[in-house]
Amino acid sequence: MLSLCYLPTAGRLTLTVIKMRNLRAMDITGSSDPYVKVCLLCQGRRIKKKKTTVKKSTLNPVYNEALVFDIPNENIEDVTLLVKVVDYDRLGANELLGVVVIGPQVIGPGRDHWLEMLECPRRPVTQWYPLTESVPINLVTSPTRGLPPTLSCFGASST
Q: Where is the C2 domain (predicted)?
């Protein structure tokens, strides 16, 4: 369950990771050690990333952690949030449990949630998401789709 809240006057987007349920067991103990990694993408490029704490030995973690991103109002339509749920492993590589993509160019619940957030500024909008197996290929391969070439992320246009 994720909550989005945008403050247009401050240019601040808050993504609150509330909780999850029925995650896949990744450890031999029959549980997982999940954490959430959020990447802020603008025109397909990673601008910022933030992580939650790791919740040990659970398939139903509760976080209630707010991750805040500064996004000027003029760039709010250019950004996408890539939310990865990852199983922490002390030895070896961390394993991906699933992915959620939220933003104006996304198809499905991530777009609906984003639009509702923009329609209700200064008010948190909460939604459950199903996890998908991998990052959608179009999120990575078409970073400038539909955007003017002079637009730059979080700054003046390049002149």
A: 1-129
Prediction pTM value? 0.86
Domains of the chain: 2-135 (2.60.40.150)
Query: Distance between CA atoms of 125 and 85, rounded to whole angstroms?
Result: 20
Q: What is the per-residue DSSP string for 35-96?
A: EEEEEEEETTEEEEEEE-----S-SS-EEEEEEEEE--GGGGGGEEEEEEEEE--SSS--EE
Q: Using an 8 Å Cβ cutoff, are 33 and 89 in contact?
A: yes
Q: What is the CA radius of gyration of the chain?
A: 16
17-75 confidence digits (pLDDT tens): 999 999 999 988 899 999 999 999 988 789 999 999 999 999 999 999 999 999 999 99
d(CA 55, CA 87): 9
